[in-house]
Design a protein that fits this description.
- The chain folds into four domains: 2-31, no CATH class; 51-177, 2-Layer Sandwich (Chitobiase, domain 2), CATH 3.30.379.10; 183-518, TIM Barrel (Alpha-Beta Barrel); 542-588 and 625-721, Alpha-glucuronidase, C-terminal domain (Alpha-d-glucuronidase, C-terminal Domain), CATH 3.90.1330.
- The chain is 36% helix and 10% strand.
- It contains 22 helices and 16 strands.
- The protein has helices at residues 2-11, 18-31, 51-54, 71-88, 150-165, 217-228, 248-261, 276-279, 291-307, 333-344, 369-374, 435-443, 455-459, 490-501, 507-518, 523-544, 576-579, 603-610, 620-623, 638-661, 669-701, 716-721, and strands at residues 63-65, 93-94, 103-107, 130-137, 140-146, 174-177, 183-187, 233-235, 267-271, 313-316, 350-354, 385-390, 414-419, 470-474, 585-586, 626-627.
- Strands 7-8-9-10-11-12-13-14 form an eight-stranded parallel beta barrel.
- Strand 7 (183-187), helix 6 (217-228) and strand 8 form a beta-alpha-beta unit.
- Bound molecules: alpha-D-glucopyranuronic acid (GCU).
- One of its GO terms (cellular component) is extracellular region.
- Belongs to the glycosyl hydrolase 67 family.
Length: 732
Amino acid sequence: MISIARSASAKHPARPGLLGLLALLLTWLLALPAAAEDGYDLWLRYRPLPAPVLKQYRDQGTQLVAPADTATQRAARDELVRGLSGLLGRAPALAAQARRDGAIVVGTPASLPQLAALQGELEGLGEEGYLIRSTRIDGRAATVVAANTDMGALYGSFHLLRLVQTGQPLAGLDLREAPKVKVRVLNHWDNLDRYVERGYAGESIWDWHKLPDWLDPRYTDYARANASVGINGTVLNNVNTSALALTPMYLEKAAALASVFRPYGIKVYLSARFSAPIEIGGLATADPLDPAVRQWWKDKADEIYRTIPDFGGFLVKANSEGQPGPQDYGRSHADGANMLAEALAPHGGIVMWRAFVYSHEEPDDRHKQAYNEFVPHDGRFADNVLVQVKNGAIDFQPREPFHPLFGAMPRTPLMMEFQITKEYLGFATHLVYLGPLYEEALRADTHARGPGSTVAKIVDGSLEGHALTGMAGVANIGVDRNWSGSHFDQANWYVFGRMAWDPHAGAEDIARDWARMTFSTDPAVVEPVVSMMMGSHQAVVDYMTPLGLHHLMGRGHHYGPGPWVEGGPRADWTSVYYHRADARGIGFDRTASGSNAVGQYAPPVAAQFGNLDTVPEEFLLWFHHVPWDHRMASGRSLWDELVLRYDRGVDYVRGMRRTWAALEGKVDTERHHQVAVFLGIQEKEAKWWRDASIAYFQTFSQRPLPEGAAPPPHGLEYYKSLQFPYAPGDGK
Ligand code: GCU
């Protein structure tokens, strides 16, 4: 379109009808929906603000005072120039001093003498915090972003840009921000051959083969996106890792990535295979108490820090799902973690030791295993060890009660592990905003030290007085143009970062910011989008695993329903182990009369979950085996309620489709179209989950469907016959 206009004016510069033609063209352009977008820019789109929003920034951001002497300072200044130019439609003038009202002034007392007066106010903001304030600098009204460090100033710059992106006024600002959690990391489950375990966004963005020489510009955009939400670390390789990741060749590649990420405050970490001393070290054992093994790890740590001076440390999956670990030598998790911690300590590195463990011998209830293995070692882990605990005791199910380890290891810092990639939540095509799931887990009250002992307070260290704190998110990032496999999955990366920065933040506020930055500042777009997002987690729970059901998906790949899955290598990899449906009822009895997993919670929580009258309905079948005709709060029988929940989930997806369809023309065509098609897939699959589950459970309940509920269109055998040998992301 632009080229047509250009050639027209070049060929017929003075033609009388030209103005009219241009006017027509303009009218036509204005009538078009916003230009197509492929999602690459994530929430950092910086498209021009609409005129009514723009008006309020008329006098602001015309000048930018921001030193650019260090790489981090340059990152901040470049981002501000890029962002303000795009949003306000004019590049700010770079200046050494504010010469007019409305300048934006960014720096530290060390980098900008003008900010020296703020020194006292920066106390308590630490190395990553910042303040944003409307004040006077050099006698002029200015917006100041000030911090103790360049990194704080970069985080503050992103915050300032967010304010403009979301249309907030810059007048009268007085904000102070510092992260509440220290280690905020993505965990990439990326293999060295670029296969991403549980990845639904294409292959790994780490092009190991071309590293260290080719530094894909995408690495910088990855760092920008992470820094914009406060993520300060990345574990590059899968927890099920090859020891090769620790060989010199790969360390050099990791160092190249670290050099791209460094200006953005992002440290590189690696998953370490516990048996590496044997596999790449030539030792006969990996016993953590063997002096030669200990020396091998010390030498390895020295080598790593020679290559990557600010290396973050190791993430370790040990004695879980067949991975090697200290128990292979009769040693404990603490023995294993402390050996690595000792090697990293002189360099300031940390160990993130995962509590997602379950042994070769099947326990009576997998739910109990991590607690049983870890609680006896509370207080025995070295100071630079964090124990990394999944939000629930089973495995990133659509909904789980909080993990009983939270609150049960007061002398050990526990970091949260959330999954951002949607292994159990419909892969990339289902619109499921994970903010409410994260919020629910973080706000859960463990009662460990009386009421109000929330998981968030354990994760941020405030309840138990830990300085080393962390949150990890299993990344949903791949080479897809839109990074996450779908436009809405970008929101899950975004909300993870924001909640890692502040585990007390609200999912809805974050969704609103994201929607404004990603789609439009128009409330007619933002509000419907936020409302779709906020109900989407409950919807997926409803159509997949309502009322506390869990682990009912297809075997291995975890795609689609598989409540009939049974047999195979171990019972706790089947569905029947978890739902226990029979003629009498359904659900896993985890009360004192069953596995007593409920006994791992603090007494008030155990009492609540363990009692059929007080257990929240969303966890009913997680903790109880309940008769089909049990009366629910609604007055319906359990069976009728179950069917109703499935239907409610499918209906919600239908509602999202309608809401989204009504936004046509308000969101650019390319993204609108893909979301619309994906919602169609989601509806089809939600219905498939509902139909297959009802067809299966009805063979036990032997009850008719409640009035108005449609019978599944196929018989059970049909659903059972479906095979998906090439479903993406399966473990290898
Ligand atoms: C799940 C997932 C695996 C992964 C494991 C883990 O079981 O399916 O692919 O390796 O979690 O967290 O270690």
